[in-house]
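Q: Hi! First time doing this. I have a protein sequence and I read that you can turn it into a structure. Is that right? Here it is:
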Amino acid sequence: MIAYETRFWVLAAMLAALAGYVDAIGFISLGGFFVSFMSGNSTRVAVGLVRDFPAAFVAGFLVLSFVSGVIAGSFVASRAARHRKPAVLAFVTGLLTAAASLSEVTSHLPVAMVLAAAMGAENAVFQRNGEVSIGVTYMTGALVKLGQHIASAFMGGPKWNWTPYLFLWSSLVCGASLGAFTFIRAGNVAIWVAVLAAGASAAYAAMAEASRRAP
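A: Yes, that's right. Below is the predicted 3D structure, encoded as structure tokens:
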């Protein structure tokens, strides 16, 4: 993350907050499953196969949906080339719009599957050499780098390189808190708020990219 300019730190924080927000909605609506944190769902698949097969079924479908979103987002990113960030986020906005629309007519699981696909696609925003360079829907890697850079600072390395990772993690936590609050108070209307946030992120990404290319 420290290899990116500050304006892209802001974009990464926006997307982490969006991921936390959407994940909280999925977690509450499904009673303990995730739409952006697939390590948790993978554990639920494993435990479910031993003691609760329907739970394994739900978690497995969410994992498949997430991976499908990663694949689709990667295709969009490849086709969009230098316009990758706003193009992927426009795609994410479309998926969230589909989820919000579905929430009016169907049960929680189909909606959560579309939300998971949106979160998978979101990971195509930050890529280098075909690999994710900033994970915006999962924080284990960010926390590891946070700890590593803090250790480096104590040993005489750069003093503040850990701050972007704390910023990223904090953004996800704050977004999740807001998502839980909004969903509890407003129900599925909360998903439409996510649509607006994703659209705003796409607009910001377009401006950030234009600023980088400006002479």
